[in-house]
Design a protein that fits this description.
The chain is an alpha/beta fold and 352 residues long. It contains nine helices and twelve strands. Helix 3 runs parallel beside helix 5 (86-94) and helix 4 (72-83) runs parallel beside helix 7 (118-128). The longest helix has 14 residues, at 235-248.
Length: 352
């Protein structure tokens, strides 16, 4: 009997902890790093700088590989390339990872519900990120998910949206200048960004008690002037998001996004009763390297940042009015963008 127990102990000590076991949801979270757009097979020194931030939670919000295939063997091979990267291996051991996808790890550039291998790709995605076999994500379409960390007074809710699996076709731009975008706003009320089931789920999540809500959208929610992928391509769906936050009286909402190969911070008074921020962190090793044309964004606060980058959210819970710092850091670990927000600012009724 002792021999059997010893063997069980040895096996348990060797096997990696499951996704669920690694997450201590009763502990308050005060340091989170955010990343998107990782080209597998290309140097990834930025993982080291992310580790140096000593995060308690890591959010990878899309284009975590560039799969772009309907062949699941090819997709798996590209995930294996990421898994074999030493910097990523160290990063993975630092803090629990919560992940969603964007178009390239979904499998089709700018893809939506038209991607024919989405069911198979979802399984590959969930397998790679170690999703437990009994996870709700295994039993429904799409990779959306949510978790709450911390206890009352210091609760952080992470909401991972899936802006790919259900998304309707986008309207091609007829007036965009070369290299200035592909799409234009489409007010077709039959089109969707999230699909009926995910919209219903999101409403339920916004009613879950939490002080801070980090909503990960792989594409930008607030920026609306560029012609690339964004919520603004489906304006009615974008407005539906704002209306839902308003109607549920959900406080503490902060959006994070990727996709753009640049970094910026946007803010809007969307009629929800307080300002909504969108921190865009993109990409970890696939951003515009040195310079790109300065892009119009009427909602940008601060500057547009190019060069490889990652995002960070730090919460100082020790203050009577907790302070949330939204940051963009570069490959050297230097802060390029920062905005500090008091939690009291993110309460319904702040803007009248």
């Amino acid at each position: 009997m002792k021999k059997i127990l010893f063997i069980i102990f040895i096996i348990a000590s060797v096997l990696p902890p499951s996704y669920a076991q690694k997450q201590k949801t009763d502990q308050p979270v005060s340091r989170m790093v955010i990343g998107s757009c990782v080209q597998q097979g290309k140097a990834q020194p930025i993982w080291e700088k992310m580790v140096e931030q000593k995060p308690q939670l890591s959010l990878l919000i899309g284009d975590n590989i560039y799969g772009d295939t309907e062949d699941m063997n090819v997709l798996k091979q590209k995930y294996e390339m990421l898994a074999g990267e030493k910097g990523f291996q160290k990063f993975k051991k630092t803090a629990p990872i919560l992940a969603t996808w964007d178009d390239h790890d979904y499998g089709l550039n700018d893809g939506g519900a038209n991607y024919p291998a989405r069911v198979e790709s979802q399984k590959v995605f969930l397998d790679f990120w170690g999703e437990p076999k009994d996870s709700p994500r295994r039993g429904r379409e799409g990779v959306y998910d949510a978790k709450v960390f911390g206890t009352e007074g210091k609760r952080v809710q992470i909401i991972l949206l899936d802006t790919r699996y259900f998304r309707s076709p986008l309207k091609r731009c007829t007036s965009c200048a070369p290299n200035q975008g592909r799409y234009e706003p489409d007010n077709d009320s039959t089109k969707t960004m999230l699909g009926d089931a995910q919209w219903k789920w999101l409403e339920e999540q916004l009613r879950v008690p939490a002080e801070v809500r980090i909503i990960a959208s792989s594409i930008q929610l607030i920026a609306e002037d560029h012609g690339w992928e964004k919520w603004g391509n489906l304006p009615l769906e974008r407005q539906r998001f704002f209306n839902l936050v308003r109607d549920t009286k959900a406080s503490g909402v902060i959006v994070i996004s990727g996709d753009r190969h640049l970094a910026e911070l946007s803010m809007i008074d969307a009629g929800v009763g307080y300002p909504i921020y969108d921190l865009t962190a993109s990409g970890l090793n696939n951003a515009s390297p040195n310079w790109r044309k300065y892009e119009t964004n009427r909602h940008r606060i601060g500057t547009m940042n190019w060069g490889n980058n990652f995002g960070m959210i730090a919460i100082d819970w020790s203050k009577p009015d907790p302070v949330i710092a939204l940051r963009i850091l570069d490959e050297d670990g230097d802060i390029n963008i920062q905005r500090k927000i008091r939690l009291s600012t993110l309460q319904p009724g702040m803007i009248k």
